[in-house]
TrEMBL record:
<dbReference type="GO" id="GO:0005737">
    <property type="term" value="C:cytoplasm"/>
</dbReference>
<keyword id="KW-0949">S-adenosyl-L-methionine</keyword>
<dbReference type="Pfam" id="PF02590">
    <property type="entry name" value="SPOUT_MTase"/>
</dbReference>
<keyword id="KW-0808">Transferase</keyword>
<feature type="binding site">
    <location>
        <position position="56"/>
    </location>
    <ligand>
        <name>S-adenosyl-L-methionine</name>
    </ligand>
</feature>
<dbReference type="InterPro" id="IPR029028">
    <property type="entry name" value="Alpha/beta_knot_MTases"/>
</dbReference>
<keyword id="KW-0963">Cytoplasm</keyword>
<dbReference type="InterPro" id="IPR029026">
    <property type="entry name" value="tRNA_m1G_MTases_N"/>
</dbReference>
<comment type="subunit">
    <text>Homodimer.</text>
</comment>
<feature type="binding site">
    <location>
        <position position="88"/>
    </location>
    <ligand>
        <name>S-adenosyl-L-methionine</name>
    </ligand>
</feature>
<feature type="binding site">
    <location>
        <begin position="107"/>
        <end position="112"/>
    </location>
    <ligand>
        <name>S-adenosyl-L-methionine</name>
    </ligand>
</feature>
<protein>
    <recommendedName>
        <fullName>Ribosomal RNA large subunit methyltransferase H</fullName>
        <ecNumber>2.1.1.177</ecNumber>
    </recommendedName>
</protein>
<keyword id="KW-0698">rRNA processing</keyword>
<dbReference type="InterPro" id="IPR003742">
    <property type="entry name" value="RlmH-like"/>
</dbReference>
<dbReference type="GO" id="GO:0070038">
    <property type="term" value="F:rRNA (pseudouridine-N3-)-methyltransferase activity"/>
</dbReference>
<comment type="function">
    <text>Specifically methylates the pseudouridine at position 1915 (m3Psi1915) in 23S rRNA.</text>
</comment>
<keyword id="KW-0489">Methyltransferase</keyword>
Amino acid sequence: MLLHIIARGKIARSPEGEMLDRYAKRITWPFRHSELPDVGGKVPPPAHTPVREVLLDERGKLMSSEEFAALLGRWRDEGVRECRFLIGAADGHGDEARAQADHLLCFGRMTWPHLMVRAMLAEQLWRATAILAGHPYHRSG
């Protein structure tokens, strides 16, 4: 299953971009990172079907790393070919996008910088795939 981060704005060369790259290289599943302008631009049509869309949103569900891994594992086992993680611009996602999403995910009730969210998401994707593979990186306490 392709794990695809689609984010508004440019990350360019930055500490957050370096962190994103560091974790992206560790993900053993197919992975892609795409950027859209802050305003306008369209999410590209899916290369694979079926697709699941996860919006990073402050109204989303708080999940443990194990719950997140289980969700990805279930979708993979159901034959989902691509899982898209959409990170909005400064004003987040509109009501229509939230209503159409398969899942709303929240990294806490605090507001996080969009660049940092990309790196945090990449780490959680690596952690989830490591959990599913039985890799010792994740320690549950």
